[in-house]
């Protein structure tokens, strides 16, 4: 299957992507990972992206689109992919359509994982990370055995600056402003599949399976 996954911070995309990948044999393509890999390998596009990232600027659409284009040409994408973090804008979605058309690939679905802001703020606001080893906890869902202390290495736990409730509200506002037009774009194309991400990881994945099960996959070859 050829899929896109979208969702606000804290909706659980990171938990769902591996489950979708394993169940549907779709290669998980994260735009962030792709940039990091290309920069590490020193590819021409990686060098180009690095220049923007180091200046704290957004990587232009043309560079991002070309990187995705190169990635989906690879043999492991023949049986499907799951795009994560791309497209983020209508311009990127239109560029993706053109790339896929060129490769005679049709998208099967754009999955949106949605949840109330209140739940998202609580989820992200409760996240704590170990300063030493980077292990992640949640004060309610995955609490450490001793409050404020990492189970793995005994290091101190802290809250990331962009996880505090006020910052999370801003992150959500930016997400909705950017993504609402994109959701409408895929809804008009009849590709949008919205599921509630407020439940457990397992329940949300069941919903995704149910919704995707009702989709007739395109013959992409």
How would you portray this structure in words?
28% of the residues are buried. The longest helix has 24 residues, at 165-188. The chain has a domain at 2-116 and 176-213: Rossmann fold, CATH 3.40.50. It is globular, with a radius of gyration of 18 Å. Helix content is 48%, strand content 15%. The strands form two sheets. Strands 2-3-1-4-8 form a five-stranded parallel sheet, with helices on both faces. The mean pLDDT is 90. The protein is of the alpha/beta class and 221 residues long. It contains eight helices and eight strands. It has helices at 13-24, 31-41, 44-54, 61-72, 90-102, 117-125, 165-188, 201-213; strands spanning 2-6, 27-30, 81-84, 109-114, 127-130, 136-138, 157-158, 192-196.
Secondary-structure blueprint:
Elements: E1 2-6, H1 13-24, E2 27-30, H2 31-41, H3 44-54, H4 61-72, E3 81-84, H5 90-102, E4 109-114, H6 117-125, E5 127-130, E6 136-138, E7 157-158, H7 165-188, E8 192-196, H8 201-213
Parallel strand pairs: 1-3, 1-4, 2-3, 4-8
Antiparallel strand pairs: 5-6, 5-7
CATH architecture of the domain at 2-116 and 176-213: 3-Layer(aba) Sandwich
Summarize model confidence as the mean pLDDT: 90
Strand fraction: 5-15%
Topology, number of strands: 8
Q: What characterizes the major β-sheet?
A: 5 strands, parallel
Order of helices and strands: EHEHHHEHEHEEEHEH
Report the uncertain regions. Answer: none
């Amino acid at each position: 299957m050829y899929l896109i996954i979208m969702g606000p911070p804290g909706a659980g995309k990171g938990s769902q992507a591996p489950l979708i990948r394993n169940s549907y044999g779709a290669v998980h393509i994260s735009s962030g990972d792709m940039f990091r890999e290309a920069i590490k390998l020193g590819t021409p596009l990686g060098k180009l992206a690095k220049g923007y990232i180091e200046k704290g600027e957004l990587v232009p659409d043309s560079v991002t689109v070309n990187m995705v284009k190169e990635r989906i040409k690879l043999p492991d994408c023949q049986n499907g992919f799951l795009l994560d973090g791309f497209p983020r804008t209508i311009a990127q979605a239109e560029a993706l359509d053109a790339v896929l058309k060129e490769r005679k690939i049709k998208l099967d679905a754009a999955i949106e994982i949605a949840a109330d802001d209140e739940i998202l703020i609580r989820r992200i606001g409760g996240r704590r990370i170990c300063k030493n080893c980077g292990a992640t906890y949640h004060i309610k869902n995955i609490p450490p055995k001793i409050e404020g202390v990492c189970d793995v290495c005994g290091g101190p736990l802290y809250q990331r600056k962009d996880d505090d409730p006020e910052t999370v509200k801003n992150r959500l506002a930016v997400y909705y402003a950017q993504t609402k037009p994109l959701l409408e774009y895929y809804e008009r194309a009849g590709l949008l599949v919205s599921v509630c991400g407020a439940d457990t990881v397992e329940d949300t994945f069941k919903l995704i399976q149910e919704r995707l099960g009702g989709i007739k996959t395109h013959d992409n070859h």
